[in-house]
Every structure is written in structure tokens, then in C-alpha cells.
Specification:
Length: about 290
């Protein structure tokens, strides 16, 4: 086999490092996953990644060490945020690699087959894992969305009506806790009425926890800062950050459109906040209340 150009070898070494890194990630996850069926799928994909590494090693004649920080990052990302999210995020990086495989297939026979294997990985990963956090994602969406829309609106109204950060925090906390219990109870009854009694309690817990955590984050500025209008600005920034992070997670794990869902949730939250702020201004003027 004729020697490959140095520039091509350099590109192949990048692929080679990626393959051995992903082999280590899949291997570690396969050993950590309790579900045996999911573990077998991960083991099979790990074996494919190792085979790809061996293919590229035959072209370069060199051994390559894995990227240990990437192994650490994606392993713990999978443990904390879910295997489906971590793997799909990692596999997104392979899309460009597939194009590169195709580009060099003429110089390296077999490269096109590697690209086909990578594409097959993605298809296998779509239905890879039945994770509880994804099964109950609808309940999390309900809790997050309601908390963001209702509490940003309430805090905006309280900010102008009360103009005292401690009073605003108190009113927001009482409103948020009461609403979280109400939403959890509603989710329990709704899920049970759909004939899913075995999931009703868990769905309610996910909804309630998502709601109350969002409430705590939105109220936090009012406990730390004295200027109530600055607090409202920081709260709205926190709301947008939550919306951004959550929709990024969903867009990766569920293959949803990020921009559409982000703009929809952000528009609802900020729109309600603006409307309630105006209502607070009007009511305060109409009633002539001074706090």
C-alpha cells in the first residue's frame, strides 16, 4: 500500500483519537448501566468504535491515546444528565466526521464504510435507553413552564405593587409553594384519569420538584439584592437561562427544534411578565396603595 500524504495522515490521526476516545466512553457506560439490554447495545457500539480505531491505526501505523478529559466529561455527563442526552450530544460531533470520511474515501479504501457505520450508530442510539427522566419529561415541562410563566408574571406585578424586596420574596415564595402543590396534585389526578395510575405519583413528584426549584431560583435575587427593579431584571435573566438550558437539553435528548421551543417559552414568560407588571402599576395607582 503506497504511503499516505502527511496532511492526510494528520487528519486520520484526529479520527483515530476520536474513535479510541469514544470506545472508552461507551465501554465505561456499558459497565455502569444497570439495564442489561442497554448495556449490550453500548458494548456493541464500543466494539465498533474499537474496530474503527484499528482500521485507522492500520493506515497510520501509530498508536493514539484517548482524550481522557473527554472520557471523564461525557461519562459523568451521562451519569448526571442521562445517558441518552450525553451520547446524542457526543454523536452530534460525528456528523462532520462522516463528511470527512467521505472526502478521503478515494484515498483510503474502506473509509466510506466507516461513515456508514457511524450513521448506523445514530439510528441505534435513537431508541437506546428507557430512562425515567425522559419518560417523565412531560411532567418536568409542565412544572417548569407553569412556574416560569406564572411566577415571572407574579414577581413582575409584586415588584411594582409592593416595591420592597423582602415583601416581594415573601409573597412570591408563598405563591410559588402553593402553586407547586396545586400543580403536583393536578398532574396526579390528570395522569390517573388517563389510566396510568402506576405513574401518577411519580409524575406529580417530577412536576412539583420542577416547579419548586424554578420558584427558588426566580426568587433568589430578591433575597440577595435591595433594588427591586434590578431584582426583576436578574429574575428575568434567570428565567431566560433556565429556558435556554432546558430547551437545549430537550432538543438533544428528544431531537426537537431548539429555536422554536425556546422562542415560544421565552415569549410566553416575558409576555406574561410585562402584562402583569403593567397590571401591578395600574392596580397600585387605582387603589392608591403605598407600601
Amino acid at each position: 500500500m503506497p504511503a499516505l500524504p502527511a496532511t492526510l495522515v494528520k487528519r486520520i490521526l484526529v479520527f483515530q483519537k476520536s474513535e479510541i476516545t469514544e470506545y472508552r466512553i461507551y465501554s465505561k457506560l456499558a459497565a455502569a448501566v444497570k439495564d442489561r439490554a442497554n448495556s449490550r447495545v453500548l458494548e456493541r457500539i464500543a466494539a465498533d468504535e474499537l474496530r474503527h480505531y484499528d482500521f485507522w491505526r492500520a493506515q497510520t501505523g501509530r498508536e493514539v491515546r484517548p482524550c481522557f478529559w473527554k472520557v471523564f466529561l461525557f461519562f459523568w455527563m451521562a451519569r448526571i444528565l442521562g445517558i441518552t442526552f450525553a451520547i446524542k450530544l457526543m454523536e452530534r460531533g460525528e456528523e462532520q466526521a462522516e463528511l470527512n470520511y467521505t472526502e478521503i474515501s478515494q484515498a483510503v479504501p474502506g473509509a466510506a464504510r466507516i461513515a456508514e457505520d457511524e450513521d448506523q450508530h445514530e439510528k441505534e442510539l435513537i431508541g437506546l435507553i428507557e430512562e425515567e427522566r425522559l419518560n417523565y419529561m412531560g411532567s418536568v415541562v409542565l412544572g417548569l413552564n407553569d412556574a416560569l410563566v406564572e411566577l415571572t408574571g407574579a414577581l413582575a406585578g409584586f415588584t411594582f405593587a409592593l416595591q420592597n424586596t423582602r415583601l416581594i420574596a415573601l409573597a412570591g415564595l408563598i405563591t410559588g409553594i402553593a402553586a407547586s402543590f396545586s400543580m403536583a396534585a393536578s398532574e396526579y389526578l390528570s395522569t390517573k384519569s388517563e389510566g396510568k395510575a402506576e405513574r401518577a405519583l411519580t409524575s406529580a413528584v417530577y412536576t412539583g420538584i420542577a416547579y419548586i426549584l424554578t420558584v427558588m431560583l426566580l426568587i433568589l435575587p430578591y433575597l440577595l439584592v435591595q433594588n427591586h427593579f434590578l431584582c426583576l431584571g436578574v429574575t428575568l435573566l434567570i428565567a431566560l437561562t433556565i429556558i435556554f438550558l432546558f430547551n437545549f437539553y430537550i432538543s438533544v435528548a428528544r431531537d426537537y427544534s431548539f429555536s422554536k421551543r425556546f422562542l415560544e417559552m421565552a415569549g410566553l414568560s416575558l409576555g406574561v411578565a410585562l402584562l402583569t407588571f403593567i397590571i401591578g402599576f395600574v392596580i397600585r395607582r387605582f387603589l392608591g396603595v403605598e407600601v
